[in-house]
Amino acid sequence: MRQDFIKAFNKAADGSQLTRADLTVLLQAQAGEEEAKLFELADAVRQKNFGNAVHLRGIIEFSNFCRNDCHYCGLRRSNRAIRRYRIPLPEIVATAKYAADLGYGTIVLQAGEDPAYSGEQLAEMIRQVKEAGDFAVTVCVGERSRRDYELMREAGADRYLLKHETADAALFAGLRPGTSLAERIKRLKWLRELGYQVGSGNMVGLPGQTVETLADDLLLLKELDVEMAGIGPFIPHHQTPLKDSPAGDLKQTLKTLAVARILLPQTHLPATTAIGTLHPAGRRMALACGANVIMPNLSPAGYRQLYQIYPEKAGSKENPEESHEKIARLVKEAGRYISTGRGDSPKEIFKKSPDTWAGER
């Protein structure tokens, strides 16, 4: 092993504070012994903080309309080839009840940034979903006003997922016309102030990204003190400006996930759908590199193939029952078990009654 890797690895293993330079070295772990040591340490940190439980978070992708024109996303507003949809609220609630019957501890309400939904409408959706079962609700609908976030929190939303995508402000602005990293971070801080369990995350392999950028992504996640970090590979969509760009590298994604686990020992890390799309065994590999969450798609079958952030998304051609059974088998084959709880953050503040969360961060 290289001497600089040994030095950075020993700091990581001792729990010492890791610098940007340390993270950069770890992210470049070479195939063979270095990668093996990195993955082994990440798995040990996961085991120490979360045991062998895998938390399932059922996603309902309720709208594929989006006001943004991001260069990497198939839902971008300029994509005229996509058939748009909005799932009626009764179907959303019925799907949530189905998830409750399966024992899910979390429902994720996800959509593009659809301006048709007011804050009040989103709040009503959350209220009805919360009544469908005893689970936490995560919301992922992008950048909204602070008042909308307040309404959703008051309606019972427990968590909010707002991925920062890249910590490089120039790259962010170039890939997301009309938006800025500063506005993204401002909203992440609002969510923290409102008492949400906050999720963010980044893509690996974006055109123009460097390993130093990836290190900055991880440092930003640590600075934000997120409760969940979604880290997955960039996958090009044929109806976007980045259609001819190469996909993110599987090994680099796994190394980024592993370093994230070491840097963020008490943060939930999903084995993302994107990594399962990139490689058939991707999610199982991710579980061995520090991941402790899987987010199965529970959207009704008729809508699944229409939510194309990237093409051929894992599970998009299955029905909800098939998706659930496939994930249950995967977890068992990995030597893990499915948690029966909500999967709240292990941080002390989130072990209290939900009514005490707001204002204490």
UniProtKB/TrEMBL annotation:
InterPro entries: Aldolase_TIM (IPR013785), BATS_dom (IPR010722), Elp3/MiaA/NifB-like_rSAM (IPR006638), FeFe-hyd_HydE_rSAM (IPR024021), HydE/PylB-like (IPR034422), rSAM (IPR007197), rSAM_sf (IPR058240). Binds 1 [4Fe-4S] cluster. The cluster is coordinated with 3 cysteines and an exchangeable S-adenosyl-L-methionine. S-adenosyl-L-methionine binds at residues 165, 176, 184. This is Iron-only hydrogenase maturation protein HydE. Keywords: 4Fe-4S, Iron, Iron-sulfur, Metal-binding, S-adenosyl-L-methionine, Transferase. Its cofactor is [4Fe-4S] cluster; [2Fe-2S] cluster. PROSITE patterns: RADICAL_SAM. Residues 338-361 are annotated as: Disordered. Residues 52-274 form the Radical SAM core domain. PANTHER family: 3-METHYLORNITHINE SYNTHASE, BIOTIN SYNTHASE. Residues 344-361 have a biased composition (Basic and acidic residues). It is an enzyme of class 2 (transferase). One of its GO terms (molecular function) is biotin synthase activity. Pfam families: Radical_SAM (PF04055). [4Fe-4S] cluster binds at residues 66, 70, 73.
